[in-house]
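Curious: why these numbers?
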Amino acid sequence: MKGLIITNPYDYSLANRRKVGRMVSEFENLKVSTEVVANDKFLAYLDKGKAKADVRADFALYFDKDKYVAQLLEMCGIRVFNSSQALAVCDDKMQTHIALANCGIPMPTTLAGTLCYNPRGKLQYSYLKQAADTLDFPLVVKECYGSYGEQVYLAKTMDELVLITERIKFKPYIFQQFAADSAGKDMRVIVIGGKTVCGMIRQSVNGDFRSNTQLGGKAAACDVPRDIALLCERVSKIIGLDYCGVDILLSSAPMVCEVNSNAMFNAMEQSSGVNVARKYCEHIIRTVNNA
């Protein structure tokens, strides 16, 4: 069996390098050869209207967000983990919430931001006031495409809301209810093959309302309560994910905040002692062998 590990050529983060290295190592331990390939080589394309791939592999572990190449690889018969459809849903935060809507999944109240296509356009105060009246201050503003918590903002006043939205109005974004009782703290749950594997509590130590470990948050392993484990498994099944990290807001009634199809797991492995990479590799091998 041979696999490709496809990475984004511009992600220089230590967390990503560690994740790739762990997967390579565990595949090697399981006697599966892999090749790490940066996704700037036109691995798959359309040739006279037909999908064509210049790579050969039994599977592709896709550590990127370029849904087009993932789709083309699938059209050429290569099993992609996660699927291109699941990647696309998770890459867009609003699309994630829409996919989970009407399925009994508890989530914060969420409004889709209005895109501005005109450089001279100014967002209407009444529009922002409606968002504020619906959600109350403070409220969260998120760019739909983003990683490591870096495109997430907290608006405490109308003036802050105006400044934030004017800066990002040309990008897809959402307004979201702020869970004050989970500020700076959440639970990250890893689900592989539809089963909850492990969890950790992420806690900000610098007063940030975001808990991401890449932003300095600390991680501590935790037992995942059965109701939250089942919730995360349902989320994984609805979206069709082989692997994901589900972020749970620890409010009085837990809510799904985000779903990450390419969740980093270095902090999870270190805090929990669970070999996440090994479990993901085993799932991939099992899936390919049973296809």
Notes: The chain has a mean pLDDT of 94. Residues 14-29 form the longest helix (16 residues).
